[in-house]
Amino acid sequence: MLKNNILKLLVIGLMLAMSLTILTGCGKKEENNNQNENTSNTASDNNQTTKKELSRGKWEDKVYTNEFADLKFTLPDGWTRSTDEEIAETMQLGEEVLKNENLYISEISKLNVVYDMMAKNASTGGNVIVMMEKNAGTAKDYADSLKTQLEKVTQMNYTIGDITEAKIGDNAYTVVAAKASVSGATVFQSYYLRDEGDYVVAVLVTETSQDNLDKIVKCFE
Question: Within 10 Å of residue 156's Cβ, how many Cβ atoms?
Fold first, then answer.
């Protein structure tokens, strides 16, 4: 049993790392393809709407809130959130950047991918990530590219569902659901994607069963 649990944790860790690489790759590709289009439309967009400024989410006890992403997440029992140090390391930033709001805004404006929240369940290997990617095309473009890239993965047996839509709180998301198996272990992933200004807001949930995954998604509002 212990061996199987460790295997599942290792598999999920591998899948998560691979998924983040795929997502980042999608964003970079879209940025190259759409850079001129985004630049030409900037003035028009600014005249039509006032875009929200990207901001960092805040934790109060077990509740995470991000005003830019319009998300709230209540940390379930048995889960732990990543520290500022761990998130800063993921983005290759100094931890002090996350503690200084002005410095944070300045530094993340230079990044294509911003990791805002990470949480995990050590007993199941479940993971949750909230991230924002700049210049990634629309959420639908992002989902199409993600599905195509996942279908090309050969290291594990991926089953990709149809691209659907679902709501978190008051917002509609484009959803890519996937299931993967390797070495006898099966894990489930869902990618929730939504346009917000110049970014795609992405919520990634990974769990060892669809039931567990659905329960974690319900922790968002």
Answer: 17
Cβ 114 vs Cβ 196: under 8 Å? no
- Give CA–CA dist 97/208, Å, rounded: 34
**Residue found under tokens 């659901």:** 177
Question: Per residue in 107-141, pLDDT tens?
Answer: 888 888 889 999 998 887 788 999 998 876 899 99
Measured CA to CA, the distance from residue 103 to residue 50 in angstroms comes to: 22
Task: Find the angle CA(102)-CA(119)-CA(60) to the nearest 5 degrees.
Answer: 55
pLDDT value at 89 more than 80: yes
Give the pair of three-digit tokens for residue 156: 């594990």
Give me the amino acid identity at 61.
Answer: D
From residue 93, alpha-carbon distances to 21, 39, 97, 143, 208 in Å are: 18, 27, 7, 28, 31
Bridge partners (DSSP) of residue 203 are 130, 192
State both tokens at 71.
């998300």
Of 160, 150, 126, 134, residue with least CA distance to 8: 126
Which residue has 């039509």 as its token pair?
Answer: 48
**CA dist 87 to 34, 93, 176, 211, 214, Å?**
28, 8, 24, 28, 25
The CATH code for residues 2-33+53-217 is 3.40.1000.10
Look at 87 and 136; give whichever has higher pLDDT.
87
Question: What pLDDT is stored for residue 105 in this prediction?
Answer: 80
Give residue for tokens 């917000």: 196
